[in-house]
Amino acid sequence: MTVAAFKKDLLAEFAKGGFFYEARKLNFDRRLHERIVAKLRKLDLSDIDWSGKRDLGKLVWDLPALYIRYERRNVENGVPQSQYENAYLEFKREVDRIVEEIFR
To answer: What backbone torsions phi and psi does residue 70 show, to the nearest 5 degrees?
Structure first.
């Protein structure tokens, strides 16, 4: 997957029906969480040059902060806190893996 294709795919998660869009609307959906984590897992950095890796690093670096930002409101809206926290930790592990691979 190219950097441009990944960016486009990830940005779709901020549009209607995407994970971040729905989480912001207090509609945490485990299925959407699994979809965005799968996108992160599929990312193969081996064919991407340093400039592309740097762009990806900048793109994913703040995503865990956005994810956790919606926690309190989603929990107040009925999502079990342990479910949200476990999902967040799974998401953060994938982002951390990507960042670690970039800066090895």
So the answer is: -90, 0
Q: How many residues does this entry show for the chain?
A: 104
- Cα–Cα distances (Å) from 62 to 30, 79, 83, in that order, read 20, 23, 21
pTM: 0.87
Write the pLDDT tens digit of every residue in 42-54. Answer: 988 988 999 999 9
* Alpha carbon distance 2, 8 (integer Å): 10
**CA dist., res. 11 & res. 59, Å (int):** 10
25-45 exposure pattern, b = at least 16 Cβ within 10 A, e = fewer: eeebeeebbeebbebbeebeb
- Pairwise CA distance, residues 36 & 31, whole Å: 9
- Cβ-proximal residues to 20 (8 Å cutoff; 6+ apart), any chain: 13, 14, 66, 67
- Both structure tokens of 76: 């107040």
